[in-house]
């Protein structure tokens, strides 16, 4: 999946390993599954991840980290 996917950071951590780095297909259909880039656990659907991203980070430090990681998008 890595060649046809894109990594991004969510303010919400993976329930399996605690990583914030997630992976989704480059197509980004609303029903595409978002997986943890570390452990591979299914975390949510893309449309749910977009909602979390729109709500924003919980703190200023989270915002700085997300801006650095997600700057490509």
Count of distinct structural domains: 1
Oligomeric state as shown? single chain
Given as residue ranges, the uncertain stretches (5+ residues, pLDDT < 50) are none
Report the sheet-strand fraction: 15-25%
* Series of secondary-structure elements, N-terminal to C-terminal: EEEEHH
Largest sheet: 4 strands, antiparallel
How confident overall, as mean pLDDT? 87
Helix percent band:
25-40%
Shape: globular
Task: Give the total of beta strands.
Answer: 4
Note the total helix count: 2
SS content category: alpha+beta
What is the radius of gyration?
11 Å
| Amino-to-carboxy terminus distance | 19 Å
State the strand order across the main sheet: 1-2-3-4
Structure description:
- A four-stranded antiparallel sheet has the order 1-2-3-4.
- The model has no long low-confidence stretch (mean pLDDT 87).
- The protein has one domain.
- It is built from two helices and four strands; from the N terminus they run ββββαα.
- The longest helix has 10 residues, at 46-55.
- The protein is α+β, with helices and mostly antiparallel strands and 73 residues long.
For this entry, give a set of tags.
single chain; 73 residues; alpha+beta; four-stranded antiparallel sheet
In short:
By secondary structure, the chain is α+β, with helices and mostly antiparallel strands.
Secondary-structure map with pairings?
Elements: E1 5-9, E2 21-25, E3 33-36, E4 42-45, H1 46-55, H2 60-69
Antiparallel strand pairs: 1-2, 2-3, 3-4
């Amino acid at each position: 999946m890595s060649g046809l996917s894109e990594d991004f950071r969510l303010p919400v951590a993976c329930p399996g390993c605690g990583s914030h780095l997630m992976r989704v297909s480059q197509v980004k259909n609303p029903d595409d599954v978002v997986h943890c880039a570390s452990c591979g656990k299914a975390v949510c659907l893309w449309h749910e991840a977009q909602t979390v991203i729109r709500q924003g980070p919980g703190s200023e430090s989270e915002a700085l980290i997300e801006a650095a990681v997600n700057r490509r998008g």
